[in-house]
Structures are given as C-alpha cells and as structure tokens.
C-alpha cells in the first residue's frame, strides 16, 4: 500500500499527536528543503522509533528514507 501526502511544516499547530501503534514497521520517503525535512524528522522521532535507511542531499533539497516502528 502506498500513501502520498504533502505536509506544511511551517507552523506547529496544537499540542501534537499521541503516539500511534503500528502493527509492523513501515518505510517512509521524505523529500523537501533541508529545514522542512529536519522538522518533519523531528516530529516523527517524537512518535516512533526511526531508523534512517538512506539519504541523498542536493543543492537545496534533501531526500530521506526511513523505517518507522512503534515504541
């Protein structure tokens, strides 16, 4: 199954989300500016165990491949 989404990380809204239980690990590919990817990664770190599987950096953009697991 594949999910695709666009997320605005400019402003933090509300108190955040409670941790979500995953039945198994999932892979996530994140792409965007360095600042946006770092902010999104920080949010994921707060909710899941995150393992960085691969990264690619360009002039103004970063690709990050992650494995997410429930804590």
In terms of topology, how is this protein built?
Blueprint: E1 26-32, H1 34-47, E2 49-57, E3 62-69
Antiparallel strand pairs: 1-3, 2-3
**Oligomeric form:** single chain
Overall mean pLDDT: 87
Shape: globular
Strand content: 25-35%
Number of helices: 1
| SSE-based structural type | alpha+beta
- Main β-sheet description: 3 strands, antiparallel
User: Which consecutive residue ranges, at least 5 long each, have pLDDT under 50?
Assistant: none
Trace the largest sheet across and list its strands.
1-3-2
The first-to-last residue Cα distance is 22 Å
Order of helices and strands: EHEE
Q: Considering DSSP H and I runs of 4 or more, what fraction of the residues is helical?
A: 10-25%
Q: Could you give the count of β-strands?
A: 3
Structural Rg: 12 Å
């Amino acid at each position: 199954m594949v999910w695709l989404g666009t997320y605005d990380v400019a402003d933090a809204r509300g108190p955040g989300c409670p941790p979500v239980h995953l039945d198994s690990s999932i892979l996530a590919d994140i792409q965007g500016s360095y600042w946006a990817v770092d902010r999104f990664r920080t949010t994921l770190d707060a909710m899941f165990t995150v393992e960085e599987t691969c990264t690619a950096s360009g002039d103004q953009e970063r690709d990050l491949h992650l494995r997410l697991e429930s804590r």
